[in-house]
Specification:
- By secondary structure, the chain is α+β, with helices and mostly antiparallel strands.
- It has a single domain, classed as STM4215-like (2-Layer Sandwich).
- It starts with a helix and ends in an 8-residue tail after the last strand.
């Protein structure tokens, strides 16, 4: 059954597989883990929200269409401001390549799985962050939400 945490885990695995990230967290930011300033590239994947997109007027035998958003905060640390910003943008490109058009965790609809926006956060030397929104859509039967641990 579909679980949104499986999507977060799939993104984490994809980003780590690139070799471009020192770490990828499923919750929290480096300050939550006691990470000091250094040459580091990281990402934090956090749920934002989910909404039912359709199916409210279909029969219980049909599927519900759910649309979810994740916030992915990309973090680049480097003493040189230009290299730091270039590195942050490169991390964004890795995220886009990992997500766009993918069937994450084997159940998101590829045509509806993509990075929809991103915002550069003000720099705080030696760090630059970009917060990206990942949107995905999946289908689930009316009464088949996975309640397993």
């Amino acid at each position: 059954m579909a679980r949104e945490r499986d999507v977060r885990n799939a993104i984490q695995a994809s980003l780590l597989a690139t070799g471009a990230f020192s770490d990828v967290w499923l919750t929290g930011l480096p300050e939550d883990y006691g990470q000091g300033a250094s040459n580091m590239t990281a990402a934090a994947i956090e749920p934002v929200g989910t909404r039912q997109a359709g199916g409210w007027d279909s029969s219980p035998a049909g599927a519900l269409e759910l649309r979810a958003d994740l916030a992915v905060t990309l973090l680049a640390r480097h003493p040189d401001p230009q290299l730091r910003d270039e590195l942050a943008e490169q991390l964004l490109d890795y995220l886009i390549n990992a997500v766009n058009g993918s069937a994450l965790a084997g159940f998101t609809i590829p045509q509806c799985t993509l990075v929809t926006s991103w915002k550069w956060q003000p720099p705080r030397a030696p760090e630059r962050r970009i917060t990206a929104t990942v949107a995905f859509t999946y289908l689930v039967a009316w009464n088949s939400f996975d309640t397993s641990p």
